[in-house]
Amino acid sequence: MNKINHLSGISSQFVETDRLRMHLLTAGSEQNTTMLFLHGNTCTSTIWEEFMLQFSDDFYCVAPDMRGFGDTEKKVIDATRGIEDWLDDITALIKELDLLPFHVVGHSLGGFVCWGLIARHAADILTVTLISPGPPMGFGGIHGDQGKANNPDYSGSGGGIVVEAFSERLIEGDRSSDHPLYSPRNMMNRLFWKERFEANREEDILTAMLQIHTGDKYYPGDYEESKYWPGVAPGKFGPVNALSPKYNQSLLHDFLNAEPKPPLLWIHGKDDNIISDESFSDPGYQGKMQLRKGWPGEEKYPPQPMESQIRFSLAEYQSKGGKVYRKQIDDCGHTPFLEKPEITRQALSNHLQKTEKQ
């Protein structure tokens, strides 16, 4: 396994909490207010390094490898609890390092976890910035603004939807570009950012991708056979199952009823291929595009409208008294903080300044 070359100004350390041994990257002085960074799926804290350094003069930037990823201790995710294992881990880290109060920045899966973090730590959070977050309804097998299940067993969500050719190459540590679709490198360059973007640290980000914890109860996770299309329903272990709407049915309610409501900024790329109403990761859209066989049609299994679900959720949050800001970035995919770092930095800085003036 290749070793990640951390940038100057980034410190790598391990912290023993009462739940597990966590690996984290930090930048800046511990005397400053904390800015907590939560990474996305098939990734680690290292994807944040360049962005963290832009804020390290004024904040204590902390980015853990979440359970199931990177150098954090390999422990099973109980997916039947939804995002609760991740929330319990983060709460334990906050307590161990005395990080209160804090700002939080979540990307993709990390943004999805933030919906629950807001519900749990509303009084401790100064601001929230969600970058290309998964919607609070969960991922896969649902339709409509409020996330109604396509089928009773939530078929089309969970570990069974991960393409076997991709997961096998992850397990093998494949760094090649041999498979046009499913080599990890090609998958990253097709989905993490808009095609033709070249990441400065592609090799390190690929290494981070290959550090995902794999095995029967890890990635891609187990699954149940389903009598409904696409033939698989959520299992009980691993990160993809933990994202299933089946196990996160109270998340939207809990987020909307958080008190007090920290101000929230939503940043997303206009050309995001993952969090979108036309997501190439969604079985419904894959079926519509004839990338999955046997699709029963839009009436029985429509694509999940993820962007619309986020819009709905934030409109509800605002109607209940929360302050919501939005920055959509043109010519940008799933990782605005890498693809358009200056625009993203300015949007977050403006968000912080608005809060300071209140």
Describe the structure.
The protein has 358 residues and is α/β, with parallel strands linked by helices. The protein has helices at 49-53, 84-97, 109-121, 164-172, 184-191, 202-209, 239-242, 251-256, 283-288, 306-319, 336-339, 341-357; strands at residues 11-16, 21-27, 34-38, 60-64, 102-107, 125-131, 142-143, 148-149, 214-215, 219-220, 223-225, 232-234, 264-269, 324-329. It has one domain (11-357): Alpha/Beta hydrolase fold, catalytic domain (Rossmann fold, 3-Layer(aba) Sandwich), CATH 3.40.50.1820. It contains twelve helices and 14 strands. It has an eight-stranded mixed β-sheet, sandwiched between helices. A two-stranded antiparallel sheet has the order 7-8. A two-stranded parallel sheet has the order 9-10.
> What is the total number of structural domains?
1
Main beta-sheet strand count, sense and barrel state: 8 strands, mixed
Radius of gyration: 19 Å
CATH superfamily: Alpha/Beta hydrolase fold, catalytic domain
Class from helix and strand fractions: alpha/beta
Residue share in helices? 25-40%
Poorly predicted spans: none
What gross morphology would you assign? globular
User: Taking strands numbered 1, 2, ... along the chain, how are they ordered across the largest sheet?
Assistant: 1-2-4-3-5-6-13-14
How do the helices and strands line up, and which of them pair or pack?
Blueprint: E1 11-16, E2 21-27, E3 34-38, H1 49-53, E4 60-64, H2 84-97, E5 102-107, H3 109-121, E6 125-131, E7 142-143, E8 148-149, H4 164-172, H5 184-191, H6 202-209, E9 214-215, E10 219-220, E11 223-225, E12 232-234, H7 239-242, H8 251-256, E13 264-269, H9 283-288, H10 306-319, E14 324-329, H11 336-339, H12 341-357
